[in-house]
Amino acid sequence: MLESELPRIGSSGVSVPTYYYKVVVDLRPPGVKGIGFILPNGSANQSVGRYAVSIDSVEAVTGFDFFTVVVDSVEEELESYVSGEHWGFELREVNTLN
User: Fold this and answer.
1) Residue 80 lies in a domain
2) Has residue 8 been placed in a domain?
3) Domain range holding 26?
4) Is residue 78 domain-resident?
5) pTM score over 0.85
6) Which residues on neighbouring strands pair with residue 85, listed in sequence order?
7) Residue pLDDT, tens place only, 2-59
């Protein structure tokens, strides 16, 4: 994610963000599932599940609304809950930012 003053590398001065994010959605029946990640840009010493957050959390940090075309009731469920077991993470591994 980009802040106003980021370190730069290379001759072209490419900005290096402190964190990056990813959101993933599974639209297969019987229900939709979503998960977000906010990871440090560098070595991570923990399981990727430790960086799992709700999509709402990623939206709060980035200012983006990722699924505007999804019906509101589905979007609310999809973005507010992290189903760790659906993605192969134990719930105790999953972080929440909200």
Assistant:
1) yes
2) no
3) 18-93
4) yes
5) no
6) none
7) 566 888 889 998 888 888 999 999 888 787 889 999 988 888 778 888 889 999 999 9
Complete DSSP assignment for 50-87: GGEE-HHHHHHHH---TTTTS-HHHHHHHHH---GGGG
Is residue 98 situated within a structural domain?
Answer: no
Q: How far apart are CA 38 and CA 7, in angstroms?
A: 19
> Each residue of 15-50: b (16+ CB within 10 Å) or e?
eeeebebebebeeeeeebbbbbbbeeeeeeeeeebe
Cβ–Cβ under 8 Å, residues 79 and 56: yes
pLDDT of residue 98: 42
Counting the structural domains of the chain, the total is 1
- In this predicted structure, the answer to whether residue 95 has a pLDDT above a threshold of 60 is no
